[in-house]
User: Fold these one by one.
Assistant:
Number 1:
Amino acid sequence: MMKSMMMNTTMKNTMVKKKSKPQRKCVGCNEMKDKSQLIRIAKISDDEFVFDKTGKQNGRGAYICKSKECLEKAFRNKGFERSFKCKISTEIYNGLEQEIQAYEA
Ligand SMILES: [Zn+2]
């Protein structure tokens, strides 16, 4: 009985400490934003990139705003290529561009 009460107190304290939301940088506009405002793009293989809706996809990831504009910026300023350390082909970019429209607010 006593033991479980102590556990509860510890858990509460941990939650209070984790007040600040996790932030990530958009590879397009390079702004720090709440993770929830961004979407993660994960590299599955050399020529396969997916939008990671769960945030649990394995592989190297980059964060981007849910906007086509930032996707364009990330492509132009080579933010993607820097993050993934590889070339991103126009085909991949076009595929991502089509997909991001579904996430745009
Ligand atoms: Zn952005």
Number 2:
Amino acid sequence: MSTWTETTLTTWGRSRFARSSTTAPADEAGLREAIRESHARGVITYGGGRCYGDASLDDGGQTILTSALNRIVSFDAETGNIVCESGVDFASLLSRVLRDGYCFPVSAATASVTVGGAFANDIHSKNHHRVGSFGDHTLWIDLMLASGELVRASRTENADIFHASLGGVGLTGTVMRVCFRLMPVPSNSADAQYRPMANVDEMIDTIDGSRESHEFLFGWVDAMATGKDLGRGSLELANLAPDDVGVAPEPATKRIRFEPPSAALHPAILRRITDRRFRKMPAAGWGARVNLRPFLFPIDNIVGFNRIYGKRGFYSIHTGFPRETQRAGIVAVMEAITAARAGSFAAVMKPMRGPGEGLLSFPMEGMAYAIDLPRRTGVEALHKEIERITLDHDGRLYIAKDALMTAETFAAMFPRLDEFREVLARIDPDGRFQSDMGRRLGLHP
Ligand SMILES: Cc1cc2nc3c(=O)[nH]c(=O)nc-3n(C[C@H](O)[C@H](O)[C@H](O)COP(=O)(O)OP(=O)(O)OC[C@H]3O[C@@H](n4cnc5c(N)ncnc54)[C@H](O)[C@@H]3O)c2cc1C
């Protein structure tokens, strides 16, 4: 018998909570037992809890924590192929792989994400235009199904299960192990330039014009700017450095010690802060050789960053648009946000190349625009408006960040949903794997 503990779980946005029985199996037998003991409300897997909404929550149900599935099974320093249990996070992997001259081809902006969570959302980074998403570097997974059977899934073996599980938000089963390919790096550093961008047009044009010349492209957007300044910000353009000579010292870690009251997030105050940030940038930009750790995981330098929006938490809207409509779509989203006097410190733009292989993968050839929005009156209505704008421009929303999308919108944005449901119907006919997100978005057959 597994040991189950009643726990309240939340995720990064702190807008969604679940009361759930949790257990943390440490091996294959323990995982099988936990899945078999799940009851009618179902079970879901919880990795680092770094999704923003309800993807890893099952209120009233049971939750498998992967915190004890945390071993590196093998690492081949010749090929760069690594096999990890799914609860291994990127933070614990980083120093191990850098020592042998490798890094992750794809990671999130925080190293607290687990390998299982990276696969289950098919995550993408600021180098997506060059390397694609996490699934593109995954060779196989070992997945425990609702029946308790452990199957190997890859492009050649159980390929339908592989493609349903990649970005499948934990509904096909619990990933026990992941084998993926690391990226060789010449040093532990990147050469980065930071250039001020006057508006959204300059930002989009410079990103698109730099796809060939730069491995990493990442725009910070001043989401409070309007009119001719709409979409201004700074663009980070970077390549891996040949060596570590002259690397800048790692920035000091900051800590958010208290949750500001909602009055502190008043649009006028936010606007003053983002305006000051933009005006402080040198007009000619600047460059630096930076250490890969803070470069890849900038959010981790601010401990407790998710408390910055106050006790009520926040939502994130992460849109993606195809090349043809990216400019019009992003401008319409920015205008809707400024008209609603919403906005925040964190708004970013990244280029994307073609689609991920997962049936529910987010990326497409084009551009992603993402923004955190404090949870205030009116933000749900704004989200509805952005769903409509995104659909009208043939875009989609990223469910790793989602807490609000409707099932109808989801079905319209993800054309392979029926294929996903067919796989679920076959491998989990009783719907043993369940989540609040799965029910909200109607992901089950
Ligand atoms: C600060 C911050 C920055 C981020 N930046 C990026 C970014 O740049 N790019 C990007 O793509 N995403 C980004 N994300 C989102 C994040 O990468 C994803 O939400 C990721 O899935 C979180 O992984 P996790 O281990 O925390 O999993 P959780 O949040 O616990 O779970 C996420 C989903 O994965 C499933 N899951 C987790 N482990 C397993 C497993 N072993 N087997 C089966 N299913 C599993 C869960 O059921 C759930 O559906 C960011 C998140 C944060 C908080």
Number 3:
Amino acid sequence: MLKKYNNCTFCNSKKLIKSNKQVYLENYYIKSIITDLNLSKNFLKKIKIYQCKNCFILQNNPWFSENFVRKIYSNIYGQHHRNWENLLNFVNKKQTPNHGNLFELLTKTIKIENYAEFNSPFMGLMLNFFEKEYRKEKSFFKYFSDNVINYLNSRQLAGKSKFEKNISKNKSKKYLDRIKKFKKKIKPVLKNKYLFVDNSPLFWGQNDNYKSVNSRSYASELLDLEVHALSYLKDIKKKLDLFGIFHTLDHTFEPNKVLNYALNASNYVIVYCHIDQKLNKQHLFSFTRKFLDFLKRKRIYTIELTNLINKRLSSPELYFLCSRKKEKILKFKNNAYK
Ligand SMILES: [Zn+2]
């Protein structure tokens, strides 16, 4: 069930040094893994925390083999709670995800017309843009959302009789007509929006469902975004203004590739991640603040935003903006402090 991860998942270096602070905390996730995989409590203590001396990420080793990783992220907790919580808070209370005033800061300093995010549609700023596009009361968003869910549900026909299938067909038309009507009210803020996805076993995705509807299908209907495989980023003609990676860079087996693809396709990349020294056993790896020093060595220019966005943090987290172009970061700094 466990496998050796002797190379750093981010930079592939072999310079992993065992940390002298080994912690074992039982949280909801760990308890679920123990119960569902029938493990003894001591089993997970075999997993130790290491730090990469090249890029400074923390990594668990040994850790679960790929088959079990997929089981954990697609079955044991296949639903990405925070992703859906963010969506429900928005449609029910019109609350956007809590990133302090990050959205205001970024839209004030960067002219954003082409925007993309990676893997999770409701973890970043997509809902902020959506809110701006309609500027409606919360009842509008709730009704819109219900119709999207009903539409996608009505297209699920397995096991239904011919009679029921006919009813479903009529329902689909009714819900979709309403959705089209809502969409006529849109005042677009962005020219293009994309959600890029990978199929890493380390990520929820394939079973990230609410009321039998997958978050990606839901997002493509509601938020009018294009969903593409990560490799499609190379074919994008128009350079992106901003690419958002919200709690998803540490949930892929190819974080280096994801970050590089994003940096090549976009002028700016905003990254939000955990930097908890007590790397929990359900995570393969975690970033640290020192990771930014590594990026600097790689000529990736950064500015940390954690303390610029007025967010009260409940756990150690890091927000940073990065770019391959030094002048872009300098320009951002000039505008941000105005
Ligand atoms: Zn490394």
